[in-house]
Amino acid sequence: MKYFCLNPISAAGTDLFTKDYEKIEELAQADAVLVRSGAMHELDFSDQLKAVARAGAGVNNIPLDKCAEKGIVVFNTPGANANGVKELVIAGLLLASRDIIKGVEWVQSIKEEETVAKLVEKGKSKFAGREILGKKLGVIGLGAIGVKVANAAEMLGMQVYGCDPYISVEHAWNLTRAVKYVKTKEEIFRECDYITIHVPLLDDTKHMINQETIGMMKDGVVILNFARDLLVDDDAIEEALSSKKVSRYVTDFPNVRTAKMEGVIAIPHLGASTEESEENCAAMAVRQVMNYLENGTIINSVNYPALDAGVCQTVSRIAINHKNIPSMLAQFTSIFSAENINIENMINKSRGDYAYTILDICTPATKEIVEKLSKITGILKVRIIK
Q1: For the chain: N or C, fewer Cβ within 10 A?
Q2: What's phi and psi for 250, nearest 5 deg?
């Protein structure tokens, strides 16, 4: 198997590849691509390419539909950088509460003065802040990052409210019982002194922080955004900062407008920029690619359904990426029946317009079978796993 790195990928990941894998310098010959933030929308993908793995959570740099149409499974690594983001959110809470940044900037402006120590004692009151102990923090989105933020804030003595109608069983188990779970984000808007958002950017979450929702909030609320820029409406946040309805807006996604706003603490997208996060993401991406290429298993794909058939225990395994349309399975089985081949195990999963099927058979898979399957209308990619 051949893999291509569009960006530098941590050796913590690439070192996991066995001798059966070769790193190459040409995308056209690759079975898999590893990428971080490199733009892929204008790239051409050969029929050889089977998988793209993003060492990170966001996949805006990858043409998901284009990949799906070519039977290319796109993976990301949710949760691998969660601790790094969590730590920066906690830092954001403290920066917004204690006016630390302006205080440090002021000290730099007087550092050449002979009486700097006296000036500090005299002027420090200008930067007095408030403690987060006992304050109410609302966490919207209780995924890998949101749960860690909620638990950490509770340990720091905050009263934590959490909201996520789609919380997974795994994340629910990991959430401390001290967090007050509420059913609607409106409860968080009304009750909390600090609000941090950890949801994906979707049609129904775009500009979820807007004039109307800000109007529900307490005066002087602090809003933290370490998820996606467009979750917050720039017009609304500028007006709220100007009126002091919002005392601070902490964002990890500065843009041409927010970077200039008074009351904004703009961080240069450092959430996952730690050595540990990069290593975790790289290792997770590589493991997912290897599992897919060697076993056909799909875990953490953003354009195909999850499917895990384990390690093949029969003579052969065939994996099929196809459109989610009627009669596909009947056509598969009829081809094998005509060849007098018994299907020992078949698993099929769908996700929107696309589906994925694994078939374990009792005789060696042949190129002739692959060719017959490939001729079925709606087939995108057929490959022999074993």
Answers
A1: N
A2: -105, 120
Spatial CB neighbours of 117, under 8 Å, sequence gap ≥ 6: none
The tens digit of pLDDT for each residue in 352-374 reads: 999 999 999 999 999 999 999 99
What digits encode the pLDDT tens for the residues 64-108? 999 999 999 999 998 999 999 999 999 999 999 999 999 999 999
How far is Cα 375 from Cα 373, in angstroms, rounded to an integer?
5
d(C-alpha 77, C-alpha 32), whole Å: 15
Residues in contact with 119: Cβ distance below 8 Å, sequence separation at least 6, in sequence order: 110, 113
Give the pLDDT band (50/70/90) at residue 58: confident
Rounded to whole angstroms, the Cα distance separating 378 from 328 reads 8
Strand partners, 250: 224, 265
324: pLDDT strictly greater than 90: yes
Mean pLDDT of 253-265: 96
Give the end-to-end CA distance of the chain in Å, rounded to a whole number.
14
